[in-house]
Amino acid sequence: MKDVSKLILEDGAVQNRSIYWDQDIYEQELEHIFARAWLFLAHESQLPNTGDFLTTRMGEDNVIVARQADGSIKAFINSCPHRGNVVCHADSGNAKAFTCAYHGWAFGLGGELVTVPLEHDAYYNAIERPRYAMHPVAKVESYKGLVFGTFDAGAPSLRDYLGDMAWYMDTFLDVPGGIELLGPPMKSILNCNWKVPTENFIADGYHVGWAHAAALKAIESPLSPLVGNQAYDVNTGLQVTTRGGHGFGVIWDAAAAIHPVGEAYAQWLAQRTPIMRERLGDWRAKFYNGHWDASIFPNCSFLYGTNTWKLWQPMGPHHIEVWTWTLVEKDMPDELKQMMVATNMMTFGTAGMLETDDGENMEQCTGSNRGWVTRRGKLFSGMGQVREGHHPELPGIVAKGIVCETSNRGFYRRWAQFMSGKSWDELAREPGNAADKREVA
Ligand code: FES
Ligand SMILES: [Fe+2]
Questions:
Q1: Which of 43, 212, 246, 291 is catalytic?
Q2: Which of 100, 135, 157, 440 has a CA positioned 20 to 30 A from the CA of residue 149?
Q3: pLDDT truncated to tens, each residue of the chain (441 aa)?
Q4: CATH number of 39-142
């Protein structure tokens, strides 16, 4: 195992550039992070009926996720236990069984082997079917409709894994009627390391007025004054790193701000806010009206408000496939949902204006490390380190304003813990840091 202890320094604020480029570090990520952590698979609304399925990836393992006859959801590796062929080629659909195109073995909705051609004549009925079930994903659990899976049978519950991030995410998951993800997801390839977009979404309020200046001007949204960092009150909103490597930033009262015609959404929020206050209290009613940039460790991100939901699927150290859905409240009127989809496509869809701004930077942030000397250097995310701390009413480590890198450091502290092969028990006892001793107003 590669010694990863020197790759992340200064409480998560300094990263060795090799983590964005080296193949052996990437292989270690597949083993220690993607084969252990809870990974986002689907939203339950994508699989309403028995036999509904979709295919996705966990790290680089292809999996089938399917709704069972008893209503539960199971997932298993999409590779035939006979000779390894890919069994299901569809992105999604409804099936009674999955049949391999090579020799015709067929598998039930739970991955169990149900049919073997020439079972009597060629195998003399001696085949032990349970032994040849498709490899199961060890645990599949749902948190308020969001379905995650882990290959590690010893992993804690999904609720424990999400920790305080779940408390914050209840802000939009606990709405009457729940949420749904509108798809099918847009898919595109970016030539960047999977951590670059994750850290952008978890913590990077700094780039918004700069990298997106032209796009914000073109959209003419209420955020347009941020162009070139003009009118940027860096103290508006918060940034939070929860335990477990998850985190987000929020700009107050800006949920609808990116939508060029946001009045209908603003009205929706105004009408729902008293209900959310009643359900979850004042703080989360405030979060309900904010615009969030967020990531769930390791590779799922979202923007609440713009309502884009992202999965950064790793494809080697230098490439990802980006999957993008639109997050909406199920009870929203159809016209409002369609407006959300249109804004998402225009901003963070495959050809979205803000997506292309980010994509170019993310590719360069990865590609520059191709240089052997460059790769031996370091990168820095120390912004706001001296002002983060405990908030009297909010969980996690909190910093005032979204222009800081508090959540970035939380992500890299967690990354380092996973990569050094710590047990779940050790991970649960995440060590404190200097911020634990400070109070944030
Ligand atoms: S590889 Fe699938 S049936 Fe032979
Ligand atoms: Fe961006």
A1: 212
A2: 100
A3: 678 889 999 999 999 999 999 999 999 999 999 999 999 999 999 999 999 999 999 999 999 999 999 999 999 999 999 999 999 999 999 999 999 999 999 999 999 999 999 999 999 999 999 999 999 999 999 999 999 999 999 999 999 999 999 999 999 999 999 999 999 999 999 999 999 999 999 999 999 989 998 888 888 777 777 777 776 676 789 999 998 999 999 999 999 988 877 889 999 999 999 999 999 999 999 999 999 999 999 999 999 999 999 999 999 999 999 999 999 999 999 999 999 999 999 999 998 999 999 999 999 999 999 999 999 999 999 999 988 999 999 999 999 988 999 999 999 999 999 999 889 999 988 766 767 777 875
A4: 2.102.10.10
Query: Which residue is closest in CA terms to ligand 1's atom 4?
Result: 103
**CATH 3.10.450.10 is right for the domain spanning 8-24+163-437:** no
Is residue 207 annotated as a catalytic residue, yes or no? yes
Q: How many A from CA of 313 to the centre of ligand 2? A: 18
Residue 89 annotated among the catalytic residues of the structure: no
Positive or negative: CA dihedral 74, 80, 84, 86: negative
3-state secondary structure the chain: CCCCCCCEEHHHCEEEHHHHCCHHHHHHHHHHHHCCCCEEEEEHHHCCCCCEEEEEEECCEEEEEEECCCCCEEEEECCCCCCCCCCCCCCEEECCCEECCCCCCEECCCCCEEECCCCCCCCCCCCCHHHHCCCECCEEEEECCEEEEECCCCCCCHHHHHCHHHHHHHHHHCCCCCEEEEEEEEEEEECCCCHHHHHHHHHECCCHHHHCHHHHHHHCCCCHHHHHHCCCCCCCCEEEECCCCCEEEEECCCCCCCCCCCHHHHHHHHHHHHHHHHHHCHHHHHHHCCEEEEEECCCEEEECCCCEEEEEEECCCCCEEEEEEEEEECCCCHHHHHHHHHHHHHHHCCCCHHHHHHHHHHHHHHHHHHCHHHHCCEEECCCCCCCCEECCCCCCEEEECCECCHHHHHHHHHHHHHHCCCCHHHHHCCCCCHHHHCECC
- Could you identify the atom of ligand 1 that is nearest to the CA of residue 105? 3
Nearest CA to ligand 1 atom 3: 103
CA of 86 to the centre of ligand 1 (A): 9
